[in-house]
Amino acid sequence: MSTDAVLYDHPGPRAKMRNLILTIVFGVALLGLLWWIYSRFDTKGQWAGNLWEPFTQSSTWTDYILPGLVETLKAAAVAMVLSLAFGIIFAVGRLSDHWWVRIPAGAIVEFFRAVPLLLLMFFIFFGVPFLTEQPMSIFWAVVLGLTLYNGSVLAEAFRAGVHAVPKGQSEAAYAIGMRKGQVMTHVLIPQAARAMLPVIVSQLVVLVKDTALGYIISYGELIQLGVNNLSANFGNVVQAAIVAAIIYIIINSILTAFAGWLGRRTRRKGRAPRAAGAATQQATIEPGLGGGGGTL
Amino acid sequence: MDVFSDPANRDVYITGFLWILKLTLAGGVGALVLGVVLAAMRVSPVPVLRGFGTAWVNIFRNTPLTLIIFFCYFGLFSTLGLSLVDDIDLNNFWLGVIGLSVYTAAFVCEAIRSGINTVPPGQAEAARAIGMTFFQTLTIVVLPQAGRAVIAPLGSILIALCKNSTIVGTIGLMESSNAMKDLINANGNAVIPIFLVFAGTFAVVLIPTGYAFGWLANRLAVKR
């Protein structure tokens, strides 16, 4: 149901009046809040030009923000490719007919979905060197953590996608004599991947945000370089954090818009039968259903 | 498991998970209240309220939680001088709760809005036809039905919130991930048992919680 129009009637004179009053009351409250923030900044001298000025100099961008952004995107890109591979392998593993493949694959996926990513990164970065007796590369600690976590989430999403393909598809494939592997690779995965494409792109948003955890183990990404190091030189931590947040918001808004466009495009083509469409929509709303999933 | 027979280490473990529990509960309540209010704003007839809700969701959903918690400490506390309580640990805790709440509220708002979308239009139309106001339609007819549809999404949000509360460790709270880091650094010979105990605690609590929410959602679903 479209929420804009159904919940209330077209406003008559009284409703228009009430809406106007609400608009004014809330508008004033909002302005009051903004003014409070402004004056708070003002009394602490946060509007001082020298705190904002660094962002007009190119050296700030080339020395701090852009290198950080590149590291963030690099970690996100490598982790995305690896998580896709991890996700496909473990989704197929969980769908296997052999219990000795299905159960371990399921256990691994459930485990890594339920463990906080930060805990996982701490273990890889601080714990694994004790075991291998070699220092751990910080980039790979971040990427490995992201891969294990997001790969498990994607594995569940793929599994939901394969389940959403109508049963008739695999039955027809078996009927023309395809083997199990062929049914999976030629019939089920292509259709599931298409239906899950928006989910995969949405997961990319989660991945980009999660690279920020690298800051905690001092991986040189956007927060480390663009906020921590920058503000160490200019003393403008509030300003640097706001600029970094804007960069994240722009990147993630583009990705979200792209996911929405992909979703509309796959639906418009109408290739997926109606039943499958409904089922995948369910899956997009709750990819974390069952187990310790739940990705924000 | 020798590590955990030392009472000092056991204390570190218990305190760590107590912080996680408190953060999850306080953050969950804050996020739920804020999220419901935001969702009501986003479907309201008043454009300013809708705009505010949309802006909130777009800003906080797209910013990493690490940055929000970072800002709560270095921005709100250190720079702008917002001090909530005198005790440093408790102050960090409440700053973390603020960060978790404003971030998670954006997701709660979106979950509830998509729940409202699952209620058939006829329900709201019928409510309007018998003369209910917007507020009555929303609270008496639409939200109770939407609430049942959002149990599963809200469950995954709660689980994610619990896992996300480890990030409050960034601002110095000795929650479970910092506790694990300290134990690992002090007991290099028992890295794997330490990790398995900490990660296992999360898995043992969160996996059944997820299935319980799935079961509950199924049981309470509005059968149509």
UniProtKB/TrEMBL annotation, chain A:
Parts of the chain that traverse the membrane: 20-38, 75-93, 114-132, 138-158, 195-217, 237-262
Membrane topology: Multi-pass membrane protein
Cited InterPro entries: AA_ABC_transptr_permease_3TM, ArtM/GltK/GlnP/TcyL/YhdX-like, MetI-like, MetI-like_sf
Localisation: Cell membrane
Alphabetical keyword list: Cell membrane, Membrane, Transmembrane, Transmembrane helix, Transport
Pfam families: BPD_transp_1 (PF00528)
Coiled coil: none
Domain ABC transmembrane type-1: 69-255
Family, as annotated: Belongs to the binding-protein-dependent transport system permease family.
NCBIfam families with a match to the protein in the record: HEQRo_perm_3TM (TIGR01726)
Protein name as catalogued: Amino acid ABC transporter permease
Organism: Paractinoplanes pyxinae
UniProtKB/TrEMBL annotation, chain B:
Ranges annotated as spanning the membrane: 12-43, 63-85, 92-114, 126-143, 150-174, 194-217
Keyword Repressor: no
Organism this protein belongs to: Paractinoplanes pyxinae
Protein name: Amino acid ABC transporter permease
One Pfam family of this chain: BPD_transp_1
Subcellular location: Cell membrane
Family label: Belongs to the binding-protein-dependent transport system permease family. HisMQ subfamily.
Transport as UniProt keyword: yes
Chief site of localization: membrane
